[in-house]
Amino acid sequence: MPDRASTDLRNWAGNIRFSPSSFEQPATLDEARAAVAAAPRVRVLGSGHSFNTIADTDAVMLSLTGIEPDVRISALDGTVTASGWLTYARLGAAVHRAGFALHNLASLPHISVAGSIATGTHGSGDANGNLATAVAAIEFIGPDGELRTVARGDEDFPGSVVHLGALGVVHTVTLDLLAGFEMRQYVYDGLTYEAVVDHFDELTSAAYSTSLFTAWGAEPAFQFWVKQRTADQSHPFPKANWYGAPLADGPRHPVPGVDPAACTVQQGQTGPWLERLAHFRPEFTPSAGDELQSEYLIDRADAPAAIEALAGIGRLLAPVTQISEIRTMAGDDLWLSPAYGRDTVGLHFTWVSDVEAVRPAMLAVETALAPFAARPHWGKLFSMPIGEVRSRYPRMGDFEKLRERVDPEGKFANHFSTAVVGGAAL
Ligand SMILES: Cc1cc2nc3c(=O)[nH]c(=O)nc-3n(C[C@H](O)[C@H](O)[C@H](O)COP(=O)(O)OP(=O)(O)OC[C@H]3O[C@@H](n4cnc5c(N)ncnc54)[C@H](O)[C@@H]3O)c2cc1C
């Protein structure tokens, strides 16, 4: 979380220094509406976990965290309506207490719900859409300070959920709930590259959510994380090994050398979804802490070939890669979702925190993945030309029209969103 009291306002990774003309933290919804109406341009800061300039602005930066949190669960509708600025950790705890579950979490629960949805943030699981696919309705403060709700079934809905912060200030989101469930998590060490490429579908479909971790190099080996719903009797017992890769003999952290105390419980101990779906526990620093990240989302049909292409540059990647993660997600119909229209595989890189050292590796990854029409994660670092990124979204033109209609003067534009989806001439 950036230090809001300081004028040196930065993102979580510290690689972006925000440069707003003012930082405002309204204490009520009415104050937030008034602030939006009065501002020439405005951008909301969520929990600041994006690695690029998507949250930055040279105008008014707004944080909604001063507003009293609101969580309303409707057992009848199977939904929760909550303040968008809440983190998944806080929202998840309330949902769990009420006996319900969210369908998925990202690797960390520290991130805000609205910020995550805005960027198409995802967890893993062949049948699990990204986090935005749980949205049933989203309530925006519009450029005039008026509230506007877009709900599933509305014409504007598929364009409005993953919005890069360009369609307004999200006040509340309504998310679909599942009945609460228990899970157990297993980790396997040392899965070979051949096993991953030859048996990719079998591995990723082995449980509700799976992840493959590797640090690349000349002969990449993979750690295989399996998050199983306890009631799922298709795999009632853990396999002793996967293609020779044994069950880990203790808890693991995905980043080599980091204390696994920061990770959710493994070794098959049953526990609630909230304490298994994410990799990292809310009370600890997630991931390596000192890092940069990139991620590229491809059609899952291309996954074995894309992994092969990355293995081909494995020696170049290893010195700047702390860890890479491969995850799956179901395709969706949300216009700017990186999983739009195709079942998707995410190829993620936790880099060392040295932009200059990382740049050539990022470029090499983008070149290696060029044949696969990769879509970069909206909240992470990439160097592909924006025109190329735009061309990967068939509904980009429709999104621009929607943005023009709901925000004709570009009040919610910043440099990042203007480059991608048009808006104010900045
Ligand atoms: C350690 C770490 C691990 C990560 N793991 C994952 C992962 O597992 N999967 C994954 O997909 N991503 C992951 N990410 C990336 C992260 O999920 C995204 O960057 C996400 O957008 C972060 O949410 P945030 O609230 O911090 O957003 P911010 O970075 O604060 O903002 C992102 C965008 O959302 C907009 N926004 C935020 N709140 C609002 C609002 N109320 N109204 C309107 N617009 C708003 C901002 O203006 C900005 O455009 C990870 C990041 C880190 C640092």
Automatic annotation (TrEMBL):
<keyword id="KW-0560">Oxidoreductase</keyword>
<dbReference type="GO" id="GO:0016020">
    <property type="term" value="C:membrane"/>
</dbReference>
<dbReference type="GO" id="GO:0071949">
    <property type="term" value="F:FAD binding"/>
</dbReference>
<dbReference type="GO" id="GO:0003885">
    <property type="term" value="F:D-arabinono-1,4-lactone oxidase activity"/>
</dbReference>
<dbReference type="InterPro" id="IPR016171">
    <property type="entry name" value="Vanillyl_alc_oxidase_C-sub2"/>
</dbReference>
<dbReference type="Pfam" id="PF04030">
    <property type="entry name" value="ALO"/>
</dbReference>
<dbReference type="InterPro" id="IPR010031">
    <property type="entry name" value="FAD_lactone_oxidase-like"/>
</dbReference>
<dbReference type="InterPro" id="IPR036318">
    <property type="entry name" value="FAD-bd_PCMH-like_sf"/>
</dbReference>
<protein>
    <submittedName>
        <fullName>FAD-binding protein</fullName>
    </submittedName>
</protein>
<dbReference type="GO" id="GO:0080049">
    <property type="term" value="F:L-gulono-1,4-lactone dehydrogenase activity"/>
</dbReference>
<dbReference type="Pfam" id="PF01565">
    <property type="entry name" value="FAD_binding_4"/>
</dbReference>
<dbReference type="InterPro" id="IPR006094">
    <property type="entry name" value="Oxid_FAD_bind_N"/>
</dbReference>
<dbReference type="InterPro" id="IPR016167">
    <property type="entry name" value="FAD-bd_PCMH_sub1"/>
</dbReference>
<dbReference type="InterPro" id="IPR016169">
    <property type="entry name" value="FAD-bd_PCMH_sub2"/>
</dbReference>
<dbReference type="InterPro" id="IPR016166">
    <property type="entry name" value="FAD-bd_PCMH"/>
</dbReference>
<dbReference type="InterPro" id="IPR007173">
    <property type="entry name" value="ALO_C"/>
</dbReference>
<feature type="domain" description="FAD-binding PCMH-type">
    <location>
        <begin position="16"/>
        <end position="180"/>
    </location>
</feature>
